[in-house]
């Protein structure tokens, strides 16, 4: 194996020697090193080659005014239609965990709202942060139940339930 490694070399023409500039007029790249006489491009750096360089004209990103802002902690809303809940078994409890297992809700914590597009033919107990009027009607018409829960921001439902458990234990102690 070591015999082969010691004989390895790149194919002919794969590696070129670096251009050596400023080594006398006879080389063809002496004195000005192939950059010409004067001007911006002959200088070191040259202030050219920037991504948005427009020949010295004030670039577009500086001409346009700043506008708006970025919300630091945006609330991500996920809208699901009643028709998408048809995949669950009759009588099932559909909450955020069940929706994540069914890959209907993905990513970090999100505020879930059920909308009324589609039909539901089986009774389900649906727990979400919001329901449209038509979605509530369709769920109840199918014999199910629409349970609205409070939105606790980016905190997971585990921390919210543990906080309510600690509140309940402190009230019972007093």
Structure description:
The protein is of the alpha/beta class and 174 residues long. It has a domain at 77-154: Ribosomal Protein L15, Chain: K, domain 2. Helices cover 24% and strands 13% of the residues. The chain is built from 5 helices and 6 strands. The strands form 2 sheets. A 3-stranded parallel β-sheet has the order 1-3-5. Strands 2-4-6 form a 3-stranded parallel β-sheet. The radius of gyration is 34 Å and the shape is elongated. Mean pLDDT is 85; it is low at 156-166.
Could you give a quick summary of the protein structure above?
With 174 residues, this protein is an alpha/beta fold. Helix content is 24%, strand content 13%.
- Rg result: 34 Å
Distance between the termini: 79 Å
Largest sheet: 3 strands, parallel
Number of helices in the DSSP assignment: 5
Unreliable segments (pLDDT under 50, ≥5 consecutive)? 156-166
Strand numbers in spatial order across the main sheet? 1-3-5
Shape verdict: elongated
User: H/E order of the elements?
Assistant: HHEEHEEEHEH
């Amino acid at each position: 194996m070591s015999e082969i490694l010691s004989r390895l070399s790149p194919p002919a023409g794969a590696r070129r020697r670096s251009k050596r500039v400023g080594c006398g007029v006879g080389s063809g790249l002496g004195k000005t090193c192939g950059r010409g006489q004067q001007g911006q491009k002959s200088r070191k750096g040259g202030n050219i080659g920037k991504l948005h360089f427009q020949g010295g004209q004030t670039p577009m990103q500086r001409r346009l005014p700043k506008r708006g802002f970025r919300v630091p902690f945006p609330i991500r809303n996920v809208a699901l239609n009643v028709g998408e809940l048809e995949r669950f078994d009759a009588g099932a409890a559909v909450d955020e965990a069940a929706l994540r297992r069914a890959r209907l809700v993905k990513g970090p914590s999100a505020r879930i709202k059920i909308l009324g597009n589609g039909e539901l033919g089986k009774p389900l107990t649906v727990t979400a942060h919001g329901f449209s009027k038509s979605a509530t009607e369709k769920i109840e018409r199918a014999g199910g139940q629409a349970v609205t829960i409070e939105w606790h921001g980016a905190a997971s439902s585990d921390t919210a339930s543990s906080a309510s458990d600690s509140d309940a234990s402190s009230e019972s102690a007093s």
